[in-house]
């Protein structure tokens, strides 16, 4: 296609080639007189004050220089106040309140210094630099056949001088080396997609194997004191960690990893409200324990509405109904919160005899396996 | 009128119009919204319980029933305890001004004496949490190492048990269907304590065996210490975190950028 033509009408909206000087670009249709809207063309060029009046130009020059000078002033203020303003100084900033002097002065001075460089440059361009509209013709994109032939010859000569076509050993070994080099880059991406040990994802420290097979006591978070069954009065909520966390706290290692999957919420509601028999059986007289880790993306589900018996996740508003074994009734989560089976031990404390029956937290590919 | 008509296409016209609209709507709401019913009865009675009963029948029985047994419009108050009454009436939540998803904080309609009479009457109906001992509602002042430690522990307990609803800074937050966890900054230590033991409305109960009175005192002290701490970060924007801060950045930073772009695109005269 000719680069002077538009696609729709052959009758001639093509541009009239103008000489380099020209500012008037009119469609050919106007010249041939076809019945069309009149093309208004480009608006007439208006001279700026500084174009004609040397005094105005001088004034604009001074304005630009003033802005650059203000920028210098800003930078100097920054340098001086960096040393001069004490770290603990505060002042009352009208409309904002108490503010740290150093932050405000450093931020504003550095902001002003870059701001005035910017608007100085723009003001310079708008008032003094040439604002003539220029029409530039389009050209063929492709080079001439001779130039292309020359370029091909240069490349061929280069290939010939490396002797690659005659020495396949080098060619294939280089190919192998480069190809193999790409692997580590891909390997890092693939290797960081998840833990190599899937059991790690399924395991929590509620697993009784971690406690020598004995039932694990439910402890208050963060006090780490055991919870007696009779302390959980109706409407109560306890935030719970397993007894086995103490080992991690004492060692001071991997505490957050252990906590992240072990968080449990313990709630007492009227047992008659619980509609699912399994949920009743796994609790004690309306005291039920559920994983606090959302099955959507693993936020801590902690917002319990005592009157509706709904548990909300603060991240994406997934809502779990405690009376329906924590089934999802709203939001992006797809699975109910896993329930932790609890009983009361001989001393009257709440214990978890089995750990979780399914992996807690968000889904992963190997979850069902 | 001509001057107004001539300026109707001014760039500021839309802003002025929006502000005017908001002002009129807000003004109309505050004018038309239901006013507090003023029905405080003052009946002289020999002892607190009898006086409380009279007050109860005059002000609360419509919803809670004449024997506080509860009706369709209000729950039974048997066994809710004096703490519950002191919290609900002492913060102006009760008597309820009108049906709503949640009782909001309101003007307190009874004096201290009347509130304690009401509390004594409700407490006489069945055992429940009593108004807390002043020992545990005294705020621990920061300064000494052990006080600072207690306040820091209060912060830990607050973050585990309370922050998910009341926000990390106690600024409050939304629940479902218009319900909300209120901000805690203007709540007295006694009322915070009572809310924990009674679990008003959507809030679950944190009884004294779950969080010991000492723990509750630490939580209260943490909240009060946070309030009195000088905030040198300028505007808090409600301490709501990324939502309000992001909105601020979008509105103001983007506004300035758009202003710059408009100026850049304008031809010089």
Automatic annotation (TrEMBL), chain A:
Record's subcellular location: Cell membrane
Chief place where the protein resides: membrane
Xref: Pfam families: QcrA_N, Rieske
Keyword rRNA processing tagged: no
SUPFAM superfamilies, per the entry: ISP domain
Keywords from the named record: 2Fe-2S, Cell membrane, Disulfide bond, Electron transport, Iron, Iron-sulfur, Membrane, Metal-binding, Oxidoreductase, Respiratory chain, Transmembrane, Transmembrane helix, Transport
InterPro entries on file: QcrA_N (IPR045603), Rieske_2Fe-2S (IPR017941), Rieske_2Fe-2S_sf (IPR036922), Rieske_Fe-S_prot (IPR014349)
Membrane topology recorded in Swiss-Prot or TrEMBL: Multi-pass membrane protein
Residues that span the membrane, as ranges: 64-84, 104-125
UniProt xrefs under Gene3D superfamilies: Rieske [2Fe-2S] iron-sulphur domain
Record keyword Metal-binding present: yes
Domain Rieske: 261-351
Stated family: Belongs to the Rieske iron-sulfur protein family.
Function: Iron-sulfur subunit of the cytochrome bc1 complex, an essential component of the respiratory electron transport chain required for ATP synthesis. The bc1 complex catalyzes the oxidation of menaquinol and the reduction of cytochrome c in the respiratory chain. The bc1 complex operates through a Q-cycle mechanism that couples electron transfer to generation of the proton gradient that drives ATP synthesis.
Protein name: Cytochrome bc1 complex Rieske iron-sulfur subunit
Phylogenetic placement of the source organism: Bacteria, Bacillati, Actinomycetota, Actinomycetes, Micrococcales
From TrEMBL, chain B:
Gene3D superfamilies cross-referenced by the UniProt entry: Cytochrome c-like domain
UniProt keyword annotation of Membrane present: yes
InterPro entries from the UniProt entry: bc1_cytC-su, Cyt_c-like_dom, Cyt_c-like_dom_sf, Cytochrome_c_Oxidase_Subunit
Annotated transmembrane regions: 247-265
EC number(s) given by UniProt: 7.1.1.8
Enzyme class, broadest EC rank: translocase
Coiled coil: none
Location of this chain's protein in the cell: Cell membrane
Pfam families (alphabetical): Cytochrom_C, Cytochrome_CBB3
Complex formation: The cytochrome bc1 complex is composed of a cytochrome b (QcrB), the Rieske iron-sulfur protein (QcrA) and a diheme cytochrome c (QcrC) subunit.
Protein name as annotated: Cytochrome bc1 complex cytochrome c subunit
Lineage: Bacteria, Bacillati, Actinomycetota, Actinomycetes, Micrococcales
